Amino acid sequence: MTEVGVPELDGAPLFLLDALPETDEVLVDGAEGRHAVDVLRLAPGERVRVGDGRGAVAEGAVVAAGAEGLRVAVTARFEVPEPDPEFVLVQALPKGDHGPLAVDLATELGVDRIVPWTAARCVTRWRDDRVAKGVAKWRAAARAAAKQSRRPRVPEVAEPMTTREVCGVLADVDLAVVLHEQARRPLSGLQIPRTGTIAVIVGPEGGLTDGEVVAFRAAGAEAVRLGPEVLRTSTAGAATLAALSMRTRWA
């Protein structure tokens, strides 16, 4: 029987498989299994959770740990619903490893969808031959961070979008905010919806152009600031998600 809801987090590690079989015993093999056996050194009797990254979770006890991986006897199943409100992060492409870092932090703090954005002042450019590699890195970072934070749902990482395409995304959200150090209105002064979709737009190291700000505001976004400090592009999204969670999911 599958229960609907969020199981209590009690320290049990979470492993993610591409598909979660409907069997009484689940094998965690491959890289996940090696990590469980060689790094975490899990032993028979220990409690774990296994999920598919899309909300289905099986809970159980380890019955065997060895070369083939981890065998788990399932004692309960859960279907974790999609979070509400949904958080969308539109993240301008940062340089170097700051992109996966931004994804990692945002995932730990509850983001549900991540849109890589090719802003005008991005130092990094994903050319045609680098798009697939860049997206794969971000998706791997989201999956790893979901396991670390024991999130049953791995955030979706979209294909890179232009400013025009991002404006199209904003048409379907309930609140959109674009972080801008010169904005007069603080995020704390906004009325935050408790349901629906909230989008956060974070610019690149070089900042937003006037044209981008105008385009996003025309699409319905509110220009806001977090505080007197100017955060790095890799941390600004996570800080905003934490502030939003305090007024919605964590309230």
UniProtKB/TrEMBL annotation:
Enzyme class, one word?
transferase
Catalytic activity entry? uridine(1498) in 16S rRNA + S-adenosyl-L-methionine = N(3)-methyluridine(1498) in 16S rRNA + S-adenosyl-L-homocysteine + H(+)
Report the GO molecular function annotations: rRNA (uridine-N3-)-methyltransferase activity
The UniProt entry's GO biological process terms, in alphabetical order, are: rRNA base methylation
- Please report the stretch or stretches of sequence annotated as the Ribosomal RNA small subunit methyltransferase E methyltransferase domain: 85-244
This protein's GO cellular component annotations are: cytoplasm
Q: Which CDD domains match?
A: RsmE-like
The Ribosomal RNA small subunit methyltransferase E PUA-like domain is annotated at 28-72
Q: What EC identifiers does the entry list?
A: 2.1.1.193
Entry's InterPro entries? Alpha/beta_knot_MTases, PUA-like_sf, RsmE, RsmE_MTase_dom, RsmE_PUA-like, tRNA_m1G_MTases_N
- Which Pfam families is this protein grouped with? Methyltrans_RNA, PUA_4
Location in the cell reads:
Cytoplasm
| Keywords, alphabetical | Cytoplasm, Methyltransferase, rRNA processing, S-adenosyl-L-methionine, Transferase
Per the similarity annotation, which family is this? Belongs to the RNA methyltransferase RsmE family.
Q: What does this protein do?
A: Specifically methylates the N3 position of the uracil ring of uridine 1498 (m3U1498) in 16S rRNA. Acts on the fully assembled 30S ribosomal subunit.
Can you say what this protein is called? Ribosomal RNA small subunit methyltransferase E
Q: Which organism is it from?
A: Blastococcus tunisiensis
